[in-house]
């Protein structure tokens, strides 16, 4: 209609990306980078641009489109990545500071009506791992255990903070009741799944010593290049139990070749003892990942993901119902 200005949520993916390009360019200037080329490489939960600087260096510019991270979170995330790079053999993108020493830039985004956090890191070569094979799953297990050992002694720096992951939704607002197209029986499944998973989280975290976790270790946040695994995207990092990281990665492998999950655990065991919890409790933590993703999908602003909300709500109910009936979570279709 003439005279009506479309909101960001009304834009398609290409239009949203173009609305975010000025944000990435402004952040590049804050980081002291002279831009020769800026191209979008991912527009999903957050938006990443590949930046080629005039001096020949290449960076990933990450715009926190849907991110819940605060400045304090970004300080902790980037500081932890820098410590991992310095103290371990895990390949991570070297984070960049601004000339003034800041780990992130806060840039106004008029299209969204708010400011967005932007971080910059050195570019990692190679494609995203996406679907892991057995060697990559084994390497992921080793990398995860290495991160856990390093995190046991690392401390969040002054000015930084990380959220605590002591409940299934990791502190996100619970909007599952707003899921479209669900019947009463479907909502009962969500209620029972939340109740069961919440009880397990409360019991396991009660009095436990927590440590930093990546909390999103799946193929989309990994690169497998020339036989070496790289880990990136620490935007979801928080404080929790190591078994949560193991469950998150297990979630992404369920429904695939069982050898992948075995390789993940074998790789972990080469570096540290595999976290031990009751099998039913572990399955509840794996299933909690489905609750978290189903909930997060409902709050997305990205056009393509918004279009998938109703279908993914049905997927979430179907998978959780099967877990409640069988005691084992899987992403495979029945």
Keywords:
alpha+beta; 9 strands; 9 helices; globular; Aminoglycoside 3'-phosphotransferase, Chain: A, domain 2; 5-stranded antiparallel β-sheet; Phosphorylase Kinase, domain 1; 334 residues
Describe the structure.
The mean pLDDT is 95. The protein folds into two domains: 8-122, Phosphorylase Kinase, domain 1 (2-Layer Sandwich); 134-326, Aminoglycoside 3'-phosphotransferase, Chain: A, domain 2 (Alpha-Beta Complex), CATH 3.90.1200. The longest helix has 22 residues, at 184-205. A hairpin with a 4-residue loop joins strand 2 and strand 3. It is globular, with a radius of gyration of 20 Å. A five-stranded antiparallel sheet has the order 1-2-3-5-4, sandwiched between helices. The protein is 43% helix and 15% strand. It is an alpha+beta fold. The chain has helices spanning 13-30, 71-87, 134-153, 184-205, 242-253, 258-269, 279-298, 303-306, 309-326, and strands spanning 35-43, 47-53, 58-63, 105-109, 114-122, 211-213, 222-225, 228-231, 238-240. Helix 4 crosses helix 9 (309-326), helix 5 (242-253) runs antiparallel to helix 6 (258-269) and helix 7 (279-298) packs antiparallel against helix 9.
